Amino acid sequence: MNRRAFLKAIGSAALVPMMPRRLLAGTTSSRVRPSDAAWPSKSAWKQLDETVGGNLFAVDFPLSILKTSPDSDAAKLLLKNVKNPYYMGDQAGLTETLGWVDAWSTQPSVYAVAARNAQDIAAAVSFARENNLRLAVKGGGHSYQGTSNAPDSLLIWTRRMHDITMHDAFVPQGCDRTLKPQPAATLGAGTIGIQAYDAVITKGGKYVQGGGCLTVGLAGLIQGGGFGSFSKHYGTAAASLLEAEVVTADGQIRIANACTNPDLFWALKGGGGGSFGAVSRLTVRTHDLPEYFGTVNFKIAAASDDAYRRLIRQFVSFYRENLFNDHWGEQARLRPDNTFEIAMLSHGLDAEQPKKVWQPFLDWVKRSSDYSVKWPVTIGSIPARHFWDGAWWKEHWPEVVLPRNGNPVHALVDDVLLALISQPILEYDNRPGAGSNNVWWKGNTGECGWYIWAYESLWLPESLLEKSSQERLADALFAASRHSGLELHFNKGLAGAPPEAIAAARDTATNPAVLSAFALVIAGDSQGPAYPGIPGHEPSVDQGRSAAQRVARCLNELRVVSGETGAYVSESNYFEKGWQQSYWGSNYPRLAEIKRKYDPEGLFIVHNGVGSEQWSRDGFTRL
Ligand SMILES: Cc1cc2nc3c(=O)[nH]c(=O)nc-3n(C[C@H](O)[C@H](O)[C@H](O)COP(=O)(O)OP(=O)(O)OC[C@H]3O[C@@H](n4cnc5c(N)ncnc54)[C@H](O)[C@@H]3O)c2cc1C
Fold it and tell me: Which atom of ligand 1 is nearest to the CA of 223?
């Protein structure tokens, strides 16, 4: 008799929590939905609510008002708010990305536990397991693949767990004899980038590896592998993990580090979020800050295809000679309209050094009438400690404005020549009562409330930078740019990083292709805000499908020279072919084994996550 028939026969789901776990093992074939008789009773939910200190709640769906009263003031305010990542993150029933054509649309869970600590998480995990519920875990809510939302589910929501403690000399539990004390920070599972940067960098004077985007959740970032703007120097976020407190599917609160549950620890370092347990706390290594971080921004338009191809060739060679080291991260962008953008960040270079580095390239551009500079070239550095300091930017902003077409305004602040920036680069959360450090990079606004049409990534191996391969690479980049815009994220490939950063990343579950890649190329397209059924904001399925084809053609041009290297799990195609190999390469069999050990019944299932092959796409039916 299967489990549902058994429950029907006894006529009550209320007995389930009392059943010994071994009786349930291996019996889950499909999970319970609210319409099923086995859905927990009101009194069972009430009991869970009491256990978690009154922090269980029914989840609403803020977008509903756009369907029911699209012309109301509340609807207009909501449309503004969906472009504010802090508003989005504050909603249990929303995710930063609203969906993906032919893939998923965000949907709220039935109930959520706004967890305060590991005990709340453990209660929710046990409740879901014992009642055979679909379980979802959400931190910053930035999954592109929709892995932190699931309809008809119970959600563990860690948003409120963002306490941060700094340590001068941290030793993971049980590692006293094997590991030296080192500087570290312990972060609640709901900590987002800016909270870590504020506490550790602005206030603490150390560096912590978060993401480039300030509202990305650290737990999701680290479990995905995770890259920040300066990962070419510090390595991946996963590699900086020293210890995690994690609730596994059996409801146990476990410590995972190099000495205790080392297999689970390794899996949490890049094995993908939401697959091995619900993390309640993370302790990460902190690093020394350099004196300066810097920025280089400009945009060049080429007069013809031929001139564009030559520009790309020149840049590839220039990159190899001058930028292929741990000082330089972030992006070069290529577009079908023959424009080329640089939006790069430097680590440890003062305001003059980057100018010297870039001068030969800019001279080369200026020598030819085939190229015109579309944005003023802005090169400069700021004190590293203020890089994520919203108040500092606000205070000094008027002094660093550079008129778009004017002469540079050199401003001296703190005796430092500031970056000459042509437009405001930070946005502020203007909701009443919002924290003063609720800021985000303007460049990330487009991704807030968007509906994805296409999105793919691919690691480009270092070997393509060898002299004999540079022309092939440049030509492939040119060919790729005929189909779609693309971005080279230099900080998301570790070739060129210090040996210790590479060694630390080697000891994570991330696809080893990252170690020898000089960049991750990302191409995508989207619209937004958009959501099915909202008048005036319907996702365009036709445009989405043709964008997906363009982006696929774009990446295929690069695959010709790179081979099937792999993709970064957190920034990849929902429809990734051979995702196990693509995301984890030779690490996948070990990850699958660890999954079987800690979650044999598949309680933690996410789209294209380890072990998800055994489940239907919605995570409700065992295949
Ligand atoms: C605008 C934007 C910018 C980005 N920029 C970068 C970047 O610069 N560098 C980079 O590397 N990546 C970047 N990403 C990708 C991002 O790192 C991943 O999507 C990451 O997983 C997001 O984590 P989250 O907590 O915000 O998201 P969520 O959607 O909440 O979670 C992501 C996954 O992790 C799981 N998870 C979350 N919390 C926990 C927990 N406590 N325990 C167990 N599982 C958990 C979820 O179940 C889900 O599967 C970006 C994404 C967006 C949308």
Answer: 34
Q: What is the pLDDT of residues 252-292, one digit of tens each?
A: 999 999 999 999 999 999 999 999 999 999 999 999 999 99
Say how many Å lie between the CA of residue 473 and the centre of ligand 1.
31
Helix (H), strand (E) at residue 63: none
CA distances from 59 to 62, 69, 126, 395, 528 (A): 9, 20, 20, 39, 23
Q: Whose CA is nearest to atom 17 of ligand 1?
A: 221
Does the C-beta of 211 come closer than 6 Å to ligand 1?
yes
Structure tokens given for 495: 């070739």
Could you tell me if the CB of 447 is within 6 A of ligand 1? Answer: yes
* Residues whose CB is less than 8 angstroms from the CB of residue 551 and which lie 6 or more positions away in sequence, other chains included: 454, 455, 456, 483, 484, 523, 524, 525
In whole angstroms, give the CA distance from residue 140 to residue 158.
Answer: 8
Q: Determine contact, residues 280/251, Cβ cutoff 8 Å.
A: no
CB 172 within 8 A of CB 243: yes
Pocket test for ligand 1, best of 148, 455, 583 (most atoms within 8 A of CB): 148
**429-447 pLDDT, tens digit each:** 999 999 888 989 888 999 9
**How far is the centre of ligand 1, averaged over its atoms, from the C-alpha of 570 (Å)?**
7
CB 589 within 8 A of CB 509: no
Question: What is the reported pTM?
Answer: 0.93
CA 78 to mean position of chain CA atoms? 24
Is the C-beta atom of 272 inside 6 A of ligand 1?
A: no
| Whether residue 491 has its Cβ less than 6 Å from ligand 1 | no
Indicate which atom in ligand 1 lies nearest the CA of residue 280.
Answer: 41
Paired sense of beta strands 206-207 and 287-288, if any: antiparallel
**Band of residue 394 on the pLDDT scale cut at 50, 70, 90:** confident
- What CA–CA distance (Å, rounded) separates 162 from 96? 19
Strand pairing category for 99-100 and 104-105 = antiparallel
